[in-house]
Amino acid sequence: MTGRRTARLRCALLSFLLILAGLQVTAEAAIVGEEESIILRDGDTLLDLAVAESLGYVELLLANPGVDPWIPAAGTELLLPKRHLLPAAPPSGIVINLPEFRLYYFAPDGEEVLTFPIGIGRTAHETPSGQTRIVKKRANPTWIPTVSARRDDPDLPEFVPPGPDNPLGAHALNLDWPRYVIHGTNRPYGIGRRVSRGCIRLYPEDIAALFAAVEPGTEVTILNQQVKTGWVGGELYLEVHPTPLQADALAATGRLTPYDPPETTALVLEAAKGQAARLNWSVIRRVTQERRGIPVRITMPELN
Prior knowledge:
It is built from eight helices and 17 strands. By secondary structure, it is an alpha+beta fold. It has an eight-stranded mixed β-sheet, with helices on one face. Strands 15-16-17 form a three-stranded antiparallel β-sheet. A two-stranded antiparallel sheet has the order 1-4. Mean pLDDT is 88; it is low at 5-28.
């Protein structure tokens, strides 16, 4: 994985330099990014590839059903799900969608969109949804465990100074919610999973880019949208993500338990905007059941 990790670090550095230079990464209509694929090699695992490719572990599993996450067959083409419909929220500041384990940053110029995979709160420590804002930026932060964290683990120290053992990593963005922080991590394998005590974790390279781009006062919107729709080039797309329990089960077993979100039909009809006759309901049912977290076109070509 060393070569891929090095390549990713170079890409992250390039993205960071582009941000500093003021160049723009634009979204086409309601979508951002492009899908990619790689050919698996001997010794690859999906957990290592998620880290190397700046993806979340669960989203990589979802995009590649049937691929063994620990002993995938060499020569298999692996889909890298890097194309995403934007969440249904005002395109401003930071928007986090919990079911897809993903953060979006909309630059003040209204054109630049950055997106990163995230780790979020586990059961009994769920990351809340709602509206907040960044109140403080901390480089090389000191981590002070909460009272409840020390109660659960009495061996925790009173504080952890900056360094490789610090769970906050090298950058932290405090929210206007006590105890909730967007930060880096010294445990990158937790990105794309429900593993924290409610805070939002990013890969070290990703939090560095976000830290450079935002300022205190930036609005933060946290959503819980399992189903997303969007028009792209005159076609309607659908993207469906798992429930929290499905995501946990998938990360633990590699299998997705079936569940059809009841709101899908209403959301699709609302998004169709008078073009319901073009909807391909067999594709809609498949996308809803598979919940692969990738945008799929659900409209049929218009008749001349």
